Prior knowledge:
Layout: H1 3-16, H2 31-35, E1 46-48, E2 55-57, H3 77-84, E3 98-103, E4 112-114, E5 120-130, E6 134-143, E7 152-159, E8 162-168, E9 175-176, E10 182-184, E11 189-198, E12 211-219, E13 223-224, E14 229-233, E15 235-237, E16 245-249, E17 259-262, E18 267-276, E19 282-291, E20 300-309, E21 312-317, E22 319-322, E23 327-338, E24 343-352, E25 360-361, E26 363-364, E27 371-375, E28 381-383, E29 397-398, E30 406-407, E31 411-417
Parallel strand pairs: 3-13, 4-15, 17-31
Antiparallel strand pairs: 1-2, 3-5, 5-11, 6-9, 6-10, 6-12, 7-8, 7-11, 12-14, 16-18, 18-24, 19-23, 19-26, 19-27, 20-21, 20-24, 22-23, 25-31, 27-28, 29-30
Amino acid sequence: xxxxxxxxxxxxxxxxxxxxxxxxxxxxxxxxxxxxxxxxxxxxxxxxxxxxxxxxxxxxxxxxxxxxxxxxxxxxxxxxxxxxxxxxxxxxxxxxxxxxxxxxxxxxxxxxxxxxxxxxxxxxxxxxxxxxxxxxxxxxxxxxxxxxxxxxxxxxxxxxxxxxxxxxxxxxxxxxxxxxxxxxxxxxxxxxxxxxxxxxxxxxxxxxxxxxxxxxxxxxxxxxxxxxxxxxxxxxxxxxxxxxxxxxxxxxxxxxxxxxxxxxxxxxxxxxxxxxxxxxxxxxxxxxxxxxxxxxxxxxxxxxxxxxxxxxxxxxxxxxxxxxxxxxxxxxxxxxxxxxxxxxxxxxxxxxxxxxxxxxxxxxxxxxxxxxxxxxxxxxxxxxxxxxxxxxxxxxxxxxxxxxxxxxxxxxxxxxxxxxxxx
Length: 423
């Protein structure tokens, strides 16, 4: 038999030996690479059978090739049909889904922890959802410095710059967990800042070195990261005195329970007076009111915060940041400077809508940290301090150890007043 015919026959035999419809499970291998074994003198590789999932060795062919007689493969009806039946299935690896936890830029170590300092940043981390959406179920913070847990009044979390979950004290294991699941969308990164509020007295705790570390993270997918993640270590200093901001009932507050007609505009609901101490000037930064009456958020419009500083009144937007808790937040931008010993009047005002009849309006301040200022000399956040009673606050009073911190007067919406008629 002619060598040329033998060569072509051997080539076709190697293909059809595997069945009538040979399939090469070779991934994205180019055609030249599939055909190459047949064009060189060597043993045939093991070829997977796509139809059965099994593998079977092809015929071991050793085709002598000489310089004077090289095989030439000619197209024919048989070879064309065989070649056209060869398919290369597309395979793609499933994308891995995981939560990537990495350190972020950390605060400098060695700074002073001063009594009463608020939201002191200790450790910054980044949570990134890779390959898909990820639910963060919980994570654990632990005091890992050479310090007593008593250095901290409470420990809390900022998520993308906003308070997340309820701050709390450290437990017997020196730990705190937010216990509030949240979801991160695929490819998104969430910034977590681990913060602590320093105790109001550091007597007997001077010179200690507190630190707060991220110990572990529980998520709906595997977590990749090296733990613990530790940021800054501070040094407590009981000698440095932080500035103060004392809160009392304001001059603009109604000071009584009022009946308010439907459709009444420009109603002042609550007001407080804020006075800086004599230690340092302070910069008023943030203020949050909580509406605990029965009116809905839709019943109140044009809500704004007003600040009267030395007879000059400035208005600021009061934004509903939590429709469930009905919390209204004001950011004073670059801040309002309150000089040593000086005071400002702060109040909230808005319009009452047409559908609030029989409902109540009660603007309270939930926590001392809902009024935050910045000490311009010590460079620490300061919360307000107001105390009229150690028990539950009556209307118009401050209570440092109960909620609400400030209990505003409760007003009732009644029928009547201004009626808007449109044609």
